[in-house]
Amino acid sequence: MIRSAEQSPGLGEPTDTAPGEGRSLRRFAALGCEFLAVTGGFAFATFLALYPVFRHLDAIYRPDSFLGRPVARWVMWVMAWDLEALSRGPSGLFDANVFHPVPSALAFGDPMLGLLPLFAPIYWVTGDLVASYQVALLATISLCGACMYALVRHWGCSRLAAVLAGLVYALCPVRLEVLAELPLATGQYLPLLLLLSDRVVRSPSAARVAALFSLAAWQVLCGLELAYLAVAVGLSYLVGLRLSGHGSRLGWIAALLALVSAFAVCLLVYRPYWDLVGAGLLVEQGGAGLLAVSGVGWRDYFVPPYLADALPGASGHYVGLVALVLAVIGVASSWWRAGRRPAVFGLGIVFFLSCAMSLGTGAESPYKVLAGVVPGLAQLGPSPGRYTLGLMLAIGGLVGMGADALATALRSRGARRGAIALCGVLLILDFQLPERRYSTERVGLTAAAMPLYESLAGMPDGAVLELPTKTCAVDPGERGIDRQLASTVHWKPLLDGYGYRGRAPVTAELVQSLAAALPDARALDVLQRATGVRYVVVHLADAAGRWRHRWRSPQGLGRIGFFGQDALFEVTEPKRPDLQEALLSVGREQTLLGNRLDAVPTVAGSAQIEFTDLPARRAVAGQRLPAELRVTNRSSETWPALTLDRERKVYVSYLWTDSAGGLVGGDARSQALAFDLRPGESVVIPVCVAVPEQAGELDLAFGLSQTNLWFEDLSERIRVAVRR
């Protein structure tokens, strides 16, 4: 028979008896071997369940959402940078080679130091970023299952029941929905966090408190996306243990201090983020606009995906009806197993906290209230929907108890195994694991691209700019992260970069506007003085028209050579970056060149706008059209552009009107002027135009704007036939 919790200590159960009565070293070795064997079993099961994702070590999962596509490559770059920076010295960890010359550029993402033990071994042996990432992802999901197994065994449940609980936690839909974003798939150490909390509360000791602190710090350093979630789960579990009367007050206080101290260490490590916010170089965004679309409704939890047509609302946050039934059995069975009641209390608090944080998106929802009080929660912490992982942690633990109670009610061993196996099959079908489809994409530098970046690696130090910074055909995030990943070959500073969740320095727009005007000699002059750029890589295949021809003999740049469709240039007359301090000074009342930031008077808004490259006359709704304009200042005032003040710089704008003259689309801040435009001066500017969703014959016109107020002069109107 399967013994009760009081009779069967299980994997990870604390040893509180005398040495002669405790487990021997052989017992601890056996437990370690059991954990390793279970981890290997979950790795095999994960590989089978997600076979298309792990079939090729040079390809990764490609999600449908374009927002999630760059994340895997960004994680590879972060891991490679972490190892590179730590080899140079830990003090330079945050001085990543992107967004030059902004300091502490890694704070626009996440160091994810806790994932290095899963990534580094393969990378050190093979030097293959993609294979290392794939192994780290497989290990993360496998450890989610194995650590949940350890937690459930700690409560005295049978091995098969613990395997079932691990299956729920490791392969739940919410984790598979974020498969392309490793920072969101972490959470593998949360079950062990509860296990160690239980041990410390029951019988505190210096070794156990240190272990809890270390594990909590390790979990929060796996990714700041889930750092707040980890602390919330740990604290709520401790509250549940305290309400149940479990353990001692001293143990409870010791566990509480261990968790809070671990999070404090995390915030200390991430201090550069707060420094950037304080300096004004990173503007915290998100707020109500993002929160309004990121919450979870009850249908998302309880409506199975296969019933989505009948009951709209099913999503990747589905927790599983089979899992819920087993969880209810686990709660009910705890009342006659006193040893499990504290755990049920703790899991119950975790369950209700996760529901409260993720359900609802109204102004008074708990998440929004806390986001306005807790520093960085809206930016560094998970969005409301991420708390579904906390929900699955609670459900997974209760599933193990429920499956164990269900099996205990049966007499024969074969019947118990058969019942749990049947539950496992039902869970797999309920989660629709056999029906999921995964598309993949190959990642890595092509053989044609390697000579270019290897040449950069052998050249003297200097900042690198890769052009074009924006294209209409490719999402800027994907293009930027591809180049960022390529920088692992040479590690030279990049003027551009990709920041996780869209985080970028306030200097990014100014630098990109100057870059867009190249090879204009005036833009190159300011760019050198502001950033110290030394090398310019031009990807000729990424743009067409007259822009390509301008790079035949650009002024101020000497061509080093062609590498297929890519050209590498070096600045012929390097200049001292005397404007770098001004570039990083937020709140200046002058532009970089010393011009005033006054609003342009209406009479000084006279502009001449000509097309150097016309946009296409036919387009599909929702696509983006490239165009190129020559803007000339016909007024007697200088138009400010070289400033971080978005309210007072001048932008190229466009608008769409229908045949009746009604406004159907537009953008008042499509592209900032490259530099302060003095009276009589001109500049050529590329613009990417978003086509409205409305089909028909539409007119497109360009103009200029400041503080969202348009200048009077517009370009000629271009008639575009838009179809769906």
Provide keyphrases for this structure:
15 strands, single chain, four-stranded mixed beta sheet, 3 domains, disordered N terminus, alpha+beta, Immunoglobulin-like, 724 residues, six-stranded mixed beta sheet
Question: What percentage of the residues does DSSP assign to strands (E)?
Answer: 5-15%
What low-confidence regions span 5 or more consecutive residues with pLDDT below 50? Answer: 1-12, 14-22, 286-294
- Return the domain count: 3
What separation lies between the terminal Cα atoms? 66 Å
Q: How much helix is in the residues?
A: 40-55%
Major sheet characteristics: 6 strands, mixed
Tally of contiguous helical segments: 27
**Subunit organisation of the chains:** single chain
Broad structural category: alpha+beta
Overall geometry: elongated
What is the compact description of this entry?
This protein is α+β, with helices and mostly antiparallel strands and 724 residues long. It is 44% helix and 13% strand.
Textual characterization of the structure:
- With 724 residues, the chain is of the alpha+beta class.
- It has three domains: 25-49 and 110-430, no CATH class; 450-583, no CATH class; 602-723, Immunoglobulins (Immunoglobulin-like, Sandwich), CATH 2.60.40.10.
- It is 44% helix and 13% strand.
- It contains 27 helices and 15 strands.
- The strands form four sheets. Strands 8, 10, 11, 13, 14 and 15 form a six-stranded mixed beta sheet that branches. The chain has a four-stranded mixed beta sheet with strand order 3-4-6-5.
- Strand 5 (557-563) and strand 6 (566-571) form a beta hairpin.
- Helix 5 (129-154) crosses helix 6 (159-170) and helix 10 (206-220) runs parallel beside helix 12.
- The protein is elongated and about 90 Å long.
- Residues 1-12, 14-22 and 286-294 have low confidence and may be disordered.
